[in-house]
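Reviewers of the previous submission asked for a worked example of the structure-prediction workflow described in the proposal, so we include one complete record here. The input consisted solely of the amino acid sequence. No template or homolog information was supplied to the procedure at any stage.
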Amino acid sequence: MSRKLGRFVFVFFLWPAFAFGQSAPMHVSREAFGVKTFPAAPRLADRMAIEPAAVLGAAEIVVPEKLAALEQWNEQPNVPTRNGFSRSIGGTLPVRIDQLQAFKGAPVGVAGGLMAKSDGGIVWSASIEVQHAYGLRLHLENVKLPQGAVLWVYGEGDTPTAFDQSLIDPHDAIWTPSTRGQVIHIEVEVPAGSDGASFDIREVMELVHLHPLLKPGTNDDPTCLVDVQCVTTGTWSPVTQVKSAIAQLVYVKTEDGLSYLCTGGLLNDQANSRTPWLLTANHCIHDQTAASSLEAHFDYEYVSCVSSEYPPLDTVPRSNGATLLVNSTSSDFSFMRLNAIPSGRVFLGWNASTSAVADGTRLYRVSHPAPSGVPYPEQFSTTVSNSALSSCSSWPHSSFLYSAFTSPTEGGVYGGSSGSLVMIASGQVVGQLAGGCTTGPNQDPSAGCDPRISTVDGAF
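From that input alone, the workflow returned the following structure tokens.
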């Protein structure tokens, strides 16, 4: 079956859960979905004190042009926000896990790392160091893994993150989950009696630390952001539930070797199946390669309304990998199924009725805006729909919702907000963020809090 036909058949069976009606309610689930149980990492890299297979100098010294290009992209600003770039490790690590070689006894050197016996079969481990890096991901290419193979990545002092062949993309490659710090350890364990495994490592994704220096407050010029932790149910009754459905999305576009940030959210279906459907923008994730690389981070928020503290991104609940089901430029949406989701999630309801968003309807959003390329923990914003606003040339009113802020204290949307879900008062989703549009001369469409700028969402 061709990939195109396979997608058609899948969507055909998906159709009854969404299409036989104009709306679906919100659904709260305390249970995780699709989370696999993996064995503990062998941590051979720790136990054997393996020297890094490659050590790359600091980006600001070795590849300052890549760092400068990322900063310029975000400051202009462009969308989506960028948060990393790929770097060559200076060669290729050809990892070939050979059963006969590994079972000879003592650990042996293979592809810059070590291979040894383990309780489950054979394990290979290696490390890559990138000086001054905030975070790292490895690109595994030409991946061949037998059934039951498990991989782990971890940084210095990190809890290992396990994954398997479900993250392989259409190019037989994997962007590993991310780790924090300048060293990334990778391990793969192949079950005894299998045919072995192989992959090549030629590049690493260096993630840049983009963090807010100041927590937003009322009229916090120039961001005007509103911390969602400061929004009460009196302002918007479903805000507490909605927060648990929103994720900051981190993904890689292989065509340019860059890492990006967007926002997305979980959707319910009419069967309350707890399937982790995710909606975001097509200009964020437009192919299966990017979907396979996806990291969805949930509960990335300030500790409280009065606190300026927030958790490191790698410590919040996370899901890796997704299957892209349907996407389109006509209303800038991408609809996918996450491989798994952590517990405590909410699946948002939706309303596809053409009468759901009449002029003057107040719209609500929780997103991860990134003014000047600096992504914030979850923020709140609210606009009012207005079909009389001037249409942008590529966003016709027939497929997009137009709204605007009515005061500079209602929050804002910026590059990292791309793909975030827009909702009506009930918390039902009616679209996802495409971007901003000027309504007059001498206006900046990236001014995310300016009431003169139209906020444009693809209509659900």
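Residues 1-13 have pLDDT under 50 and may be disordered. We consider this example representative of the routine output the project will generate in years two and three.
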